[in-house]
Amino acid sequence: MARQNIILFLTDQWRWDTLNEAGHPAILPNLRAFRAEATNFENAFTTVPLCTPARASLFTGRLPHQHGTTDNVQGKSFYPHGKLHPKQTTYLERLRDAGYNVAFVGKWHLGDGTILDRGIEDVVLSDGGDTPLTAASDVSFAEPRKSPYYGTITDGEPLDGIRVARAIEMLPRLAASDQPFCLVVSLHAPHFPHHVPAEFVALYDDLPADYVPKNWCRQFAEPGKPLAQSRPWHAVHDTAHMSAEDWRRTAQHYWGFCSYTDALFGRFRAAMTEAGLDESTLLAFTSDHGEMLGAHGWFDKGPFFYEEVMRIPMMVRQPGVAGGETRRNFVSFHDLFPTLIERAGAETLLDAAERERSYWRSDNDAAFYTYDAYQGRQFRFRGIRETRYKYAWSPHDLEELYDLDADPGERRNLASEPTHQVIGQRLKARLFDWMTRENDWLSGPGSHPPVGSYVDGRDAGEQHQHPQG
């Protein structure tokens, strides 16, 4: 068959439950309609709940310890191991070399301009890249405003509206070509700062005054948790100042941001139809990771594997495949491009092992996670998540074990309890078997620095001064 086009609509920090939990208050009419025409992968997980390493895994198909990008990129400066190495080939380059027109709009977050260095030229970057977008200068806000947690825009539009408009402008040109194309539309939303147009904030005005997540608690108040969860590692993590009203407004603006993005997705989906792409184009919707939004007292994300940050939405629409199906096999973010390429009829780009990673071929019953660094600090965590149990291991911190049936909020760490030692040892053995197969250096012996210590020994102020090379 002729190779199909590929479009990836990629969001940032979108929680799984908004689209998969029955009765969830998020108002998402366009994405719910899309779910009816797509296949929904209910057990989709990121490789690591951190933007840059997760995106590096997406575009290379490799795990963080394999591609070497284990920390975030910050503009033109790089934390150690924060920039995707030029020798790490991406699927975008492989598609281009196979005759696809490749286009990219939005957040790259793998190093300023480095996508252009790879010869991908049909690019509109908006995170400090070489062809930046500029937000409208007349954006104004209502009070109260508590950035980055919440802010109601009364005049102007978030930058993502410009990103999607630029992507829509590309569609007729891409559709008219004799070559198949791959387009990535990469948004900032709903990552903080939660600056949201007033009409979408108003959708959640009836949120109860005492709203907090079921597993909310005062930060650092839960017993039996690893040292990595005992302090804030970024200014936004310190939530001691958050009142009940702050948490309510934060949830209101986060979900409002999701609803705004849903409207953008609806515009884009309609533009696809207008461009005549419905019968020739795969369309996937997903996110790089989730958002804590008050769970366990945390905001944003951090060095942990809670469901709120690990589980991601994953929907794929393919022409000729009936929509509305929900699949429950476990799938990973870093296997998405092999899946899309295989389903698009371009499987000759893939080796035999990559083809077997397709979501439609996989029968995985577990997800595996990694976490190594954040903001220049060291963390060493590996994890496994089965249907009922989740286990996390670290060479320099407490182990974690949760029974997701009995404790879906992951409040009680069972790792040290005598009644759960057999389960914990079984999961640890399975995790280490996976680490060995994936050539994870952490599976071998070695010494490890204290939790949260700086990777290169420099102080915090110097962590932003790494060279680009």
From TrEMBL:
Residues 4-345 form the Sulfatase N-terminal domain. Residues 456-469 have a biased composition (Basic and acidic residues). Keywords: Calcium, Hydrolase, Metal-binding. Transmembrane segments: none annotated. It comes from the Bacteria. GO terms for molecular function: arylsulfatase activity; metal ion binding. Gene3D superfamilies: Alkaline Phosphatase, subunit A (3.40.720.10). PROSITE patterns: SULFATASE_1. Residues 442-469 are annotated as: Disordered. Belongs to the sulfatase family. This is Arylsulfatase A. It comes from Vannielia litorea.
